[in-house]
Amino acid sequence: MLQERFNILIVEARGEGVPEALADALRDSAVAAIKAEKADCSVVTVPGVFHLPGAVAQAEVGGSRPAGVRYDGYVALGALIRGQTLRYEVLAHETMRGLMDLTIGRNLLIGAGLVTADTEAQAWERVNGKLAERGAEAARACLAMVGLRRRLLGISR
Q1: Which helix or strand (DSSP H or E) is residue 57 part of?
Q2: Which residues carry out catalysis?
Q3: Which positions make up the binding site?
Q4: Buried b (16+ CB within 10 A) or exposed e, 82-92
C-alpha cells in the first residue's frame, strides 16, 4: 500500500484499427490498478500510439507552469495489430523509443503498455486474457518506479 497519494497521468491512444472495446479494456485495467493502490489518476486520449511520447512530454512541460498539473508518473497505453496499419513496425519501434528517450533523457517515470499483436484475438489475450493484463501491468510498473524514486531520493519528482 502506498504511504502518500501518487498522481499518475494515463495517456491512451485510440485509432489505428484497434477496436474501441480493446482500448477501453486496456485503460480500465490501468485505472483499476492505480485506484487499488489508492493513487490518483487522470486520463487523456491521443489519436494514435505515435502521439504517446509527445503527449507525455507536453504534460510534463505543463506541470512546470503555474496552472499546470504535476504528475509523479505516466502510463502510456495503446495497441497495434499487424495488418491494421502498414506502418506497424515503425510505429511500435518509434513509440517505444520515444518513451524510452523520455525515461532516460528527461528522467520521467513511464509505465509502457503498448500491445503489439499479429491478430485482434492475440491482442485481446494480451490485454485481458490468460497471458497478461497489459494495462494493469504498465500501471503497476509506473507506481513501483514512483515508489522507488521516493525511497531512493526522498522526493516525489
Answers
A1: helix 52-63
A2: 87
A3: 49-51, 79-81, 84-85, 126
A4: eebbeebeebb
CB–CB of 59/71 below 8 Å?
yes
Distance between CA atoms of 15 and 135, rounded to whole angstroms? Answer: 17
Confidence of residue 85 (pLDDT cuts 50, 70, 90): low
pTM metric for this prediction = 0.91
Q: Determine contact, residues 61/46, Cβ cutoff 8 Å.
A: no
Residue 5, burial from CB neighbour count under 10 angstroms (0-12, 13-18, 19+): exposed
Binding residues for 5-amino-6-(D-ribitylamino)uracil, as ranges, are: 49-51, 79-81
CB crowding 12-40: b at 16 or more within 10 Å, else e = bbbbbebeeebbebbbebbbebbeebebe
Contact 97, 67 (CB under 8 A): no
pLDDT value of position 2? 42
